[in-house]
Amino acid sequence: MAKPLSYPDAVHLLRRAAARGRAEEARRLSELGLEAAVDSLLQDPTPAPAFKTEVSSSERGEQQRQLTQLWLTHWLNTPTPAAERLVLFWHGHFTSEFRETMGAQGSDVWAQFATFRTQGYGPLGELLKAVAHNPMMLLYLNNAESRKEHPNENWARELMELYTLGPGFYSEKDVQESARAFTGWTVRLPSGKGGKMRDPNEAFEFFFRKNWHDTGSKSFLGQPVESGDEVLEILTRHPQTYAFIGRKLLAYYLDPQPPAPLVSEGAKVLQSSGTREFLRWLFTHPEFYAPAHRASIVKSPLEYVVGLLYAAGQTRPLIGKDDGKASGRLLGLLATMGQVPFDPPTVKGWDGGMSWLAESPLLARLNLVAALAGQEPSLNLEVFMDGATGPLSLVKPEAQLL
Length: 402
Prior knowledge:
Layout: H1 7-18, H2 23-32, H3 34-41, H4 60-77, H5 81-93, H6 106-119, H7 124-132, H8 135-140, H9 154-163, H10 172-181, E1 185-188, E2 205-208, E3 218-220, E4 223-225, H11 228-237, H12 239-253, H13 260-273, H14 275-283, H15 301-311, H16 326-337, H17 359-371
Antiparallel strand pairs: 1-2, 3-4
InterPro entries: DUF1800
Pfam families: DUF1800 (PF08811)
Protein name: DUF1800 domain-containing protein
């Protein structure tokens, strides 16, 4: 017999899984029952439109505005919005900063997001391998220039400290040996055209430059290795990788301070079955619906904007008039709120939490409410926030919480 899903629980599930929704969608989930509702949210992601630009390779600011419009338009319209909230998680975990990545173009950023989308639900080891081969990451953390004569340690260090094990589970020697293993992992353009002649619509591809690679013997976490792939395999087998990332997933979807027993249980699910099954486990777990974890997560600016515009019935992320300047206003608003897409402030990503609700970022959220003046009749806020009774409810603290 199918487990029931109450309407309030369906609202909570939809808000947490997708960061957007309307009352009729929550009712449909409730009618499906718990397991079927979760399965419907965790369907394979709908592909996003291709990135195409007519601006030059030097106009990276305009490319970023176009990328932001492209992604949020997709998030507002896709039938698989839960996949986009997961893309945001991976974007904040496997960070790359567009403005700090010399040589990168919008096509490289969008290709990385396609990796997060297509492989984000799968086995963690497969995603990790794809990220390690991703040109945006190789450029951002300087591994694309790493040679046997002078191995660059940026990628090797962040791979362990921020992306897999966390601090305290590796030595400085492990960083050095890993950096040697990844020498020669670089990028190239399929067309062979680079520099000022580069087409911003042509993405880099991974390339192994054999004569840059250090072929000497290496030891990583106590095991002999030769290549970067072997380093990734060791990290993929390490239980701490799943405890570290599993805890971050629980902080993102359940509570900023997840209970230790759930962290332990979730790590085992993540290691044995992958991210989709981890989310299915979490979304069907009684603890997910416990009162202690309701309204415990502050919406990020992107989640706030997408959720509110979707509640207003918008299919494009328009702020104010549709006068050709909407993309600039959107990016400016997100910058004031503290979250510019494709540009986390540091390699650690966004701090999140109460930092989203400092004076200036909070004022920007309220200004967005004012920008929706005239759209009040179309606002469907039941999923956006608990206890909504109309547009004036948006000034309440509940409007800021998932």
